[in-house]
Amino acid sequence: MSDQNISRSPEFLQERISYLEESNLRFISIFEMLASSSEYQGDLSRAKDEEAIYRATICQLRRLFPFQSIGFLSCESDGSFELLAADPAIAQDTLQSLIDTRMMDGTFAWALNRNQAVLVPTETGETLILQVVATQSRVRGMFVATLPGNSAALDAPSLNALTIVLHTCAYALESTVLYGMLHDHTQHLEERVQLRTRDLEEARLQAEAASLAKSDFLANMSHEIRTPMNGVIGMTELMLQGGLTPQKEKQYLNAIKDSADSLMLIINDILDFSKIEAGKFTLENKPFCPRDAVKRCLGILSVRAEEKGLQMFHQVDSAVPACLVGDQGRLRQVLTNLVGNAIKFCQHGNISVEVGLKSNNADKVVLHIRVNDTGIGIPEEACQRIFNQFEQADSSTTRKFGGTGLGLAICKKLVELMDGEIWVESQVGTGSCFHFTSQFLLGDEKLLIDEEAITDSSSARQTPLTILLAEDVEINRTLVQAILEPHGHVVICAENGRKALEAYTSRAFDVVLMDIQMPEMDGLQASRAIREFEREYGREVPAPILAMTAFAGNEDRQVCIDAGMNDYLTKPIKPLQLVQLLNKYCAGPTGSAVELTGGGLATAAAANELNGAIAVFDQDDLLERLGGRPEMIPRFVGLFCKGVLPQLEGLVTALAAEDADGVRRHAHAIKGAAANISALRIQQLAATMETTAKEGDLTEVPQRLAMLHQEYRTFTETISALGIAV
Ligand code: ADP
C-alpha cells in the first residue's frame, strides 16, 4: 500500500477497516466451521439415510453463512429433482417456487453443469444460491439457499468452504447409497445362503435316507443271498461226505436246486433293476394272446397258492381283444410279482386277478389289471413308498417273509415303460388290491396262429447232431452235454472262442452253441471268424450258431445277430428251450430220428396211450401250467405224491367208519391235487367218488377205492417210466 493511499480520507480508511473486520468475521466463521468439521463428520457417519445427511449438512452450513432458508433437492433415478429437506420447514414453498422459476429460465440446468455456486438475485431482493451436489461420477442433488441482501457477502474463501462441505455431503450421500446397495446385496446373499443351506440340508437328509435304505437293502440282500447259499454249501458238503442213500441224495439235490432257483430270482431282479436304471431296457413288440399269457402265468403260481391253502381265481373281461402286440414277458413279470406278493403276504382266504379293458382307441389298447388279496394289508403311509426301490412296508416284513424290496420298484418301472400306472388300495388286516394299467397295440389273431405253428414245428423229431459247444465254464459244458447226449447228439467241447474256431475249421458241425463271454476270443469274435471262414472256403451250408448268454435284452440279441449268429438262449440253460431251439434250426428227416426222451423231456403220449382214452398223466398240460419249465415237474409231482398218500389213508378210515362226509372231503382233496398235477385218471375217479359220497351213497366206494390205489400205482410207474425222478 502506498503512502498516498494511506493519506486518503478517513471515510476510505473507515470503509477499509469495516471490510477487513467483515473478512475477519467470515474467516472466523470459516475457521469455526472447519473446527467443527469433525462433529459434522461424526454426524455424517451416524446418518442412516439421505435426510439425515442433509440435516447434518444444513447444520454445518449454517455455521458458515447466515442463510434465511436452505434446502436440498435429491436427484431421482428418472433424472427429476425433488425438494427433500427445507430449513426452516415453512420455507419449503418459497424455495420450491424459486427453484421452479430457475428451472424455467435455465439457471438450474446451468448450475448443474458447474462445480461452484451460482448466485442469482431474487425478486424480493435476496440472493439465491444454487450449487450442484455431486461426486466425481454422479450428480446426487442440488443445494439451494437464500441469503439476505445481495451477494456481496460471498467472497471466494466462503464459496470454497461451501464447495468443500457440499462435496463432503455428496460423498456421504454416495456412501449411503453404496452402503444401501451393499446391505441389500448382503441381505440377498444371506437369504441365498439360507436357502442354499436349506437345500443342502434337504439333500443331506435325502442322501442319508438313501444311504440308510441302501444299507438296509444290502443287509436284506446279503441275508437273501446268504440263506440259499448256505443251503447250497451245506447240502453240497453233506453230499461230498458220501454214504447217502439215493433218496437222501435226491432230497439234497432238490434242496440245492431250490436254493439255486431262488438265488437266480434275486440276481434276475438285481440285473433287471440295474438295466432299467441305466435306461438299457427295451420292450419286445410281438403278438400275443392276453388270455393265454395270464392263464400260463397264474398256472404256475396257483400251485404255490394251493400249497398255502389259498384259493385263486382269475377272470378276463370278454371285451379284452384276443390278440395284442407288446411285451407279454414283461406283462407276465409284473403280474407274477404282484400275485407272488399276494401269495407271500396272505395266510388264508383268496387271491383274485381281474383283467379288464380300460380303453381301446385307434389301435391302442389299455388293459387294467387288478390283483386282490385277503392278506396282511399295507398301512396307508406305506402305500406310495413301497413302489420305491429297496422299500418295504416295514422292516419286520423282511425278517418274516423275506424279500429285497425291489419287486414293486421293478414293476413300477416296467409298467411305466408300457405307458401305464401302478397303485395300491389296501387296509391293514383286510387285504390289498394292486392295480396296474399297460398299453399295447391291437394285434391280428392270424399272427397268433403263425406263432403256434412255429412252436409246433419245434417239437418235430430230430436226427442225431454233431454239436460244437464253445463254453469256458466246465459246469456249463457238463450241463449242456448232460442235456444233449442222452438224445444221441455228439457234443464236442471247446474252452474258448479260439479253440472253437480251430475245431470248426477242422471238421463239419451241424450246429454251434456259443457262449459269449470267454477268454482269449469271445463268442462274438469267434462267430465273426467262423462266418469269415465259411465265406472264404465256401462251406455249402453254414452251421447255425446259437448264442448262450446271461444278458437277455433285445439289444443283446441284436449284437449276436450282427456277429453272424442265428439265435440265442438265455442262461441258465433250460433243457426244453435248448432242445426246441435245436429242433427249430436243425429239424432233420423224421424217419431215422432219435426221439427226445429222458431228462424229463419226453412227451407222455406213449405211456398214456396204453391206458385208454383218459391219460394217466398229461405232462404237456402240466408243463404248460408250469410256464414251460420241465425242471419244476419232479418237484410238483413229488409234492403230489407226498400229499395224496395221507388222503388215501383218510379215505380208508372214513369208509371203515361209514363216514360219507369224510369220504367226500378226502375224495375232494385228491381230486384237486390230481387236477393240479394233470393226473387225469385219478382226478376223474376221485371226482366220481366225491359226487356219490355227497349224495350219501357209499356202495360203490370200496371198488372205487381199490381202483384209486391201482391208478395211483400206475401213475407212479408212468412217472418213473418217463424218467421223472421224485
Ligand atoms: P419284497 O421283495 O420285499 O416283497 P416288493 O417290492 O415286492 O419287495 O414289496 C415291497 C413291500 O411291499 C413288501 O416288503 C411288503 O411290505 C409290501 N407288499 C407288497 N405286496 C404286498 C401285499 N400283497 N400285501 C401286503 N404287503 C405287500
UniProtKB/TrEMBL annotation:
Transmembrane residue ranges: none
Q: Which residues form the Histidine kinase domain?
A: 220-442
For this protein, the record's SMART domains field holds:
HATPase_c (SM00387), HisKA (SM00388), REC (SM00448)
Instruction: Identify the residues that the record assigns to the HPt domain, covering every copy.
Output: 629-722
Membrane-topology annotation of the record: Multi-pass membrane protein
What superkingdom does the record give? Bacteria
Q: What class of enzyme is it?
A: transferase
Every copy of the Response regulatory domain together lies at 466-586
Where does the protein end up? Cell membrane
- UniProt cross-references to Gene3D superfamilies, sorted A to Z: 1.10.287.130, 3.30.450.40, 3.40.50.2300, Histidine kinase-like ATPase, C-terminal domain (3.30.565.10), HPT domain (1.20.120.160)
Recite the UniProt keywords alphabetically.
ATP-binding, Cell membrane, Membrane, Nucleotide-binding, Phosphoprotein, Transmembrane, Transmembrane helix, Two-component regulatory system
Q: What is its EC number?
A: 2.7.13.3
Q: Which reaction does it catalyse?
A: ATP + protein L-histidine = ADP + protein N-phospho-L-histidine
Q: Which residues carry the post-translational modification 4-aspartylphosphate, per the record?
A: 515
**Main localization, broad class:** membrane
The record's annotation in Pfam families points to:
HATPase_c, HisKA, Hpt, Response_reg
Q: Which of the residues bear the PTM Phosphohistidine?
A: 668
Q: In its UniProt entry, what is this protein called? A: histidine kinase
Protein species of origin: Pelotalea chapellei
